[in-house]
Design goal:
The protein is mainly alpha-helical and 78 residues long. Helix content is 38%, strand content 0%. The longest helix is centred in the middle third of the chain and has 16 residues. This is Ribbon-helix-helix protein, copG family.
């Protein structure tokens, strides 16, 4: 028997889909460390985090764009 603790896993046969995105190394390290402290995989941690946000707010929160939006200049019509 392995000396390593087993991480929590979802039920066998539960449907899953791939969710990918690039994040900063610091953000990944934060999530990885939080998942390790929780004793779960990164995927399980992210799914639980999403579920918690939805439960608390009714849906995922809207966040600010990383880039400013284009805005129209106030030019009077000719």
């Amino acid at each position: 028997m392995s000396a390593m603790k087993r991480r929590a896993r979802r039920a066998d046969g539960a449907p899953t889909v791939l969710l990918q995105g690039r994040v900063s190394p610091e953000a990944r390290a934060e999530v990885q460390e939080a998942a390790e402290r929780s004793g779960v995989s990164i995927a399980y941690y992210l799914e639980a985090l999403i579920d918690q946000l939805v439960e608390d707010n009714g849906r995922l929160p809207i966040i600010a764009s990383p880039r400013p939006q284009r805005e129209e200049l106030p030019i009077p019509a000719a």
